[in-house]
Fold this sequence. Notes:
This protein has one domain (about 25-485): Up-down Bundle (Amino acid/polyamine transporter I). The protein has 23 helices and no strands. The chain has helices at about 5-15, 30-40, 40-45, 50-55, 60-85, 90-100, 100-135, 140-160, 165-190, 210-220, 220-225, 230-235, 240-270, 275-280, 290-300, 300-335, 345, 355-375, 375-405, 420-440, 445-465, 475-480, 485-495. The chain starts with a helix and ends with a helix.
Amino acid sequence: MSNTPSSSDEQDLKHFGYAQELFRSMGGFSNFAISFSIISILTGAVTLYGYGLNLGGPLEMSLGWPVATLFTLLLAASMAELCSAYPTSGAMYHWATALGGRAPGWFVASLNIVGLIAALAGINFSAAQFVLPFLGISPSPGHVFLMFAFTLLVHGLINHFGVRLVALLNNTSVVIHIIGVFAIAGVLFWLAPRQPVSFLASTSNSSGHPYTWAFLLGLLQAHWTYTGFDGSAHMAEETHDPRRVAPWGTVIAVAVSGVVGYILLLSITLAIRSVPEVLAAHDAQGNPIPAAIAILQSGLGYRFGNALAAFASVAMWFCGLSCVTSASRAIYSLARDHGTPFAATMQKVSTKHGTPVAAIWATVIAALAAMAWTGAVPIVTSLSTVALYLAYVIPVALGLRARLRGSDWPKLAIWTLGRWGTALNSIALVYTLFICFVLMMPPNQLAAKTLVGVLIVLSLVYILEVRRKFITPGWVAELQRIPGDATTQAVESEAD
């Protein structure tokens, strides 16, 4: 056909029953950048460094990170295939609806939104903790919360005024993250006293749990970092050639983060002088100092260490910006199928800026409330990790079930796992459910209780409010009426 890529993408979207409302302006790098920025190795790996060090010691960094990376890649690849089959902003929501029905789809969408909002709270709160020492402001609870709220406000404003600006900043974010990691790692390797390589195999455990269990609990550090890679899928309707580009954006973001993050963690770990001193560090006013900042300060001096910590906070700032983008698209997508309260408002797109304004500000307000409720970064990070991983794994499980029943849905995908699909889906499913269970155990029991409360509230909202109004997307109903190979032919004919 003579269609341009943009018009072909719009025709493909029409097959799903949606008009092109959002601006389709992202290329492959920008799509990758959104997931890479939300993963943000300078956020997750650094923010929860002390948490992982306390539970598993240096071995948590040298072994835990590659283990988490490997299994997350399997999950990301399983999701990428689904994204290629169903390239809409709904992402996991639409995948689950197509493969499991209306109720599973709605709960997946809701868990995804809850997880992204909780992640945003942890990201921006951590950014505030890291930047205040550089500014010469005591990181007291009040100061941190005010800086956190100000950062959320700025992110809301930037997302409000345009996807092109967000795309530009996300591209910049990739550069900042790469430069930041190699700057920190290079300076630490060059200037800071280093431990021998054998130090990476040493252990530390002050949790009171047996070491193996403590090590598993410490994987929260890595797995919270590896959240948000669904951002590439959520931006499918704003990306050229999304059936190919969005899946690659998802997988490559995890792979690059794995390699670069490992370099960062090894450099920080080898710069530790004393694990107990790092974990017990406080400033002159008695406020606890994040472990990564304490290592930078002890290895490089107070001023230089704070400067590099501030650089990390810039990366966290970009991460929070991307998280607002992803969460707002998830809300917008659910609202246009009447799946949220105030759906008519939440699905509105600004004609001037091409952004879902109400969904953006709902995300900002909800993140502020989440941090005010929990009051601790490990709690919101654990909550966000489990909520997001459940949202990731449910459609993978539904896709695996359909695959085993002989469904043709994998034929809809251009980016495909082929004959390895069943095995890779199965491994990803088992590991993800296991890690979700682990991350709800003490000391993160408040996250477990909060998640149970969230599920109860969601159930009530669905039964009392949403069920009567929520509609199955028209394209899902259409696919369910077309038998096997005809479905494939119908989608391919639209995509050609």
